[in-house]
Amino acid sequence: MHKYLLLAIFALAHLSIVHAQAEQIGKITGQVNLENNKAADNATVALHRSTDSVLVKTALPNQEGFFEFENIKAGTYVVAVSQVGYAKFKSATIRIGAQNWTVNLSPIVLTEKVQSLAEVTIEAKKPFIERKLDKLVVNVENSIASAGNSVLEVLERAPGVMVNQESSINLKGKQGVIVMIDGKLSPLSGADLIAYLKGIPASNIATIEIITQPSARYDAAGNAGIINIKFKKDQRQGLNGALTLNYGLGFYSKPSGSTNLNFRKKKWNLFGNYSHAQPQHFTRFYINRKFFDANQDLQSTFDQTSFIKQPISSDNTRFGADYYVNKKTVIGALFNLNWNNSDRNGKTNSLITLPNGQLDYTTRTDILLNENRFNGFGNFNLKHTFDSTGRELTTDIDYGQFSANTFQNINNANYNASNALIAADKLNTDQNGLITVRSLKADYVNPLKNNAKFEAGIKLSIVDSDNDVKFFDVTEETPVLDQSRSNHFIYRENVNAAYVSFAKQFKKFDLQLGLRLEQTSTKGEQLATGEEFSRSYANLFPSFVINRKLSDKHQLSFSYAKRIDRPSYRQLNPFKIFVDPYTYVVGEPTLKPVLTNSYEVNHTFLNKYVTSLSYSSTREVITDIFVQDDLTKISYQIPANLQDFDQVNIGLFIPISIKKWLNSSINGSVYWNQYSSPLQGGNLLNDFTAWDTRINNTVVLGKKGWSAELSGFYQSKNAWGLFIIRNLAQVSSGIQKVSKDKNSTFKLAVSDIFYTNRIAVLVKYQNMDFFTDRTWDSKVATASFTHRFGKNTVTRARQRNSGVEDERRRVG
Question: Which residues form the signal peptide (predicted)?
Answer without folding.
Answer: 1-20
